[in-house]
Specification:
- The protein is α/β, with parallel strands linked by helices.
- Helix content is 27%, strand content 26%.
- It contains eleven helices and 18 strands.
- It has helices at residues 42-49, 66-69, 72-81, 97-104, 161-166, 172-180, 188-191, 210-216, 233-239, 244-254, 272-280; strands at 4-10, 24-29, 32-36, 58-60, 88-91, 115-117, 124-129, 134-139, 147-152, 156-159, 182-183, 186-187, 192-195, 199-203, 221-225, 258-262, 286-289, 295-297.
- The strands form four sheets. Strands 6-5-4-3-2-1-18 form a seven-stranded mixed β-sheet. Strands 7-8-9-14-15-16-17 form a seven-stranded mixed β-sheet.
- A hairpin with a 2-residue loop joins β11 (182-183) and β12 (186-187).
- α10 packs across α11 (272-280).
């Protein structure tokens, strides 16, 4: 059975706290795992969350500030220590390639796993196309070069029972029609409709910008930073971040079904205020204020 869920490993911005580890997020997407922004302590958080190095197929780094990347050294060495049997691909801003190399070879270890490096540059690009998803990136607005990522599942088909019945197609013939596209003069278009593929987006450190809006458009789940509360909007803009209300506005305008707020400043003690401000901004979908070591299912496909 396919599993699509977000495993939250850490939710703190800039510095960890007693209750929040540095960033880290593993997206389980059917049989693959994509690790986003492994900050310091990610390897231990993986252990606590029941995530193994074998679960990682890709690593996506939004930018090279420490709270989003200092865990790379430990994660990469763990991948090799555990002899992960499949290749792992890393994506990150090309302008930070020297940081990636330093972290990859921060200390001595035996390198025995194929780790591909496929950086992104410019305004963004399609990074990978598989049977399960297309992965692309868009440039964000932060003091250092930063990118957000999006997974888009290919569109499928939804069979319509009433139209199948009208054409007398039942039992094994339904599967045959789905595979071959036509059966006894009946086409897929005659008895089915497009089922839009699921979409997931991951947006970290950024001001409001076009890249964030494009990534969020029509997403089933949006994981997005909300470092500040709305009363500190000027501070957020100066440092290249979003407030809870701004993040919720992006989700509201993009038609996001499930919003996950994360990357919280240590200055705030009440996580409930992030939810209150997101609701005040008009977001009405599923809303989660992320906490470390929680699992958040990607919503089922829309009917």
């Amino acid at each position: 059975m396919s599993v699509r869920e977000l495993v939250v490993l850490g939710t703190a911005s800039q510095v960890p706290t007693r209750h929040r580890n540095h960033n880290g997020y593993l997206l389980r997407w059917d049989g693959e795992g994509i690790l986003f922004d492994p900050g310091e302590g990610t390897q231990r958080q993986m252990l606590r969350a029941g995530v193994a190095a074998h679960d990682i197929d890709r690593i996506c780094v939004t930018h090279f500030h420490g709270d989003h990347s200092l865990g790379l050294a430990g994660v990469i060495q763990r991948i090799n220590l555990d002899r992960v049997p499949h290749p792992v691909t890393a994506h990150y801003p090309r302008s930070g390639e020297h940081f990636f190399e330093r972290l990859r070879y921060a200390t001595a270890y035996r390198e025995c796993v194929e780790l591909g490096q496929e950086p992104v540059e410019g305004e963004g690009a399609v990074l990978a196309t598989t049977a399960a998803y297309t992965l692309d990136a868009r440039r964000l607005s932060h003091p250092v070069e930063s990118y957000g990522y999006r997974l888009v599942e290919p569109d499928g088909r939804r069979m319509l029972p009433e139209l199948l019945a009208e054409r007398g197609i039942t039992g094994p013939d339904v599967g045959r029609l789905a595979r071959e596209g036509e059966l006894n003069g009946v086409t897929l278009d005659d008895v089915s409709e497009i089922r839009r593929g699921q979409r997931f987006a991951f947006i970290m450190d950024t001001r409001l910008c076009e890249g964030a809006r494009v990534l969020a458009d029509g997403c089933d789940m949006l994981v997005i930073e909300s470092t500040f509360l709305d009363g500190d909007v000027q501070l957020a803009t100066e440092h290249g971040h979003l407030t809870a209300g701004q993040a919720a506005t992006v989700a509201r305008d993009a038609g996001v079904r499930a919003l996950v707020l994360t990357h919280f400043s240590q200055r705030y003690a009440d996580p409930g205020e992030f939810e209150r401000q997101a609701r005040a901004a008009g977001y009405e979908g599923e809303l989660t204020v992320a906490a470390d070591l929680t699992r958040i299912p990607v919503p089922r496909r829309a009917a």
